Amino acid sequence: MSPVPEKIIPGEVVRLNDLVTRVTAPNPGVMTGPGTNSYIIGSKELALIDPGPESDVHLATLLEAVGRRLKWILCTHTHLDHSPCQKALREATGAEVLGFATVPDDGRQDAAFNPDRALREGDVLATRKFKLRAVHTPGHASNHLCYLLEGQKLLFTGDHIMQGSTVVISPPDGDMAVYLASLERLLALDLAALAPGHGHLIEKPHDEVRRLIAHRMKREQKVLGALRRLGSGTLDDLLPLVYDDVPQRIHLVARRSLHAHLIKLVDEGRARQNGDAWVMTSA
């Protein structure tokens, strides 16, 4: 049995192994857990994954940790808790900013994100010490990339997988069917651990991916059960039935994932939308 990890403290520089250091931003909350993790990879030449939100305090901690060695700033996606600090970090260090080329227009993104170089599925960044490979994992965000540290089989998952909770799928950019397909893809990768954007390292990565898929499918069955029970229901009608096992304080956030589940069911022909209400089909 693995020892219980120590509590994550924002601003603390934590050496995870000989190549990877974690610094957590001071933005704890319902959506971010203990805060957004920034990961520093390397020794003489460094890559930094997810610079985090705009924060002078976090920026100062990162600059002290990387010194003059930062070569690349990689963003998993452009939600406001993951990428905005890249601008100040680039200005201070001259490091190259990399990430997906497009920024979704849904009001929840870092609209100023403009990478120096766009990354696609399979692109590799290499130094003498490490190789990072981009893995496109849309679903939570259409422009989401994970990064695989190949020698260590460590996958930096951003918000594709979080430790301690499931991620929110927020339409229109978030897509439940695409998210599940992206999770399935990870089962084909040779992985030793996951380094999430929020929380501790996750051991037994394939077990965790299977658990997440099963959890989402169980939630989908609750959506179908609620539709059978009500016959017809709005998002607000369905929400307390589908998420009766989670605190009401997060129902407003869960409502987005409920919407994503319903869109998936409509696309599969198992439900239809009738105005603001949703009903099961006879199929």
Q: What structural class do the secondary elements suggest?
A: alpha/beta
Order of helices and strands: EEEEHEHEEEEEEHEEHHHEE
CATH architecture of the largest domain: 4-Layer Sandwich
Poorly predicted runs of 5 or more residues: none
Percent of residues in helical segments?
A: 25-40%
Separation, N- and C-terminal Cα atoms: 46 Å
| CATH class label of the largest domain | Alpha Beta
Q: Structurally, how many domains make up the residues?
A: 2
C-alpha Rg (nearest Å): 19 Å
- Spell out the CATH superfamily of the largest domain: Ribonuclease Z/Hydroxyacylglutathione hydrolase-like
The fold-level CATH name of the largest domain is: Metallo-beta-lactamase, Chain A
How many H/I helices?
6
Which labels suit this protein?
283 residues; alpha/beta; Metallo-beta-lactamase, Chain A; Arc Repressor Mutant, subunit A; seven-stranded mixed beta sheet
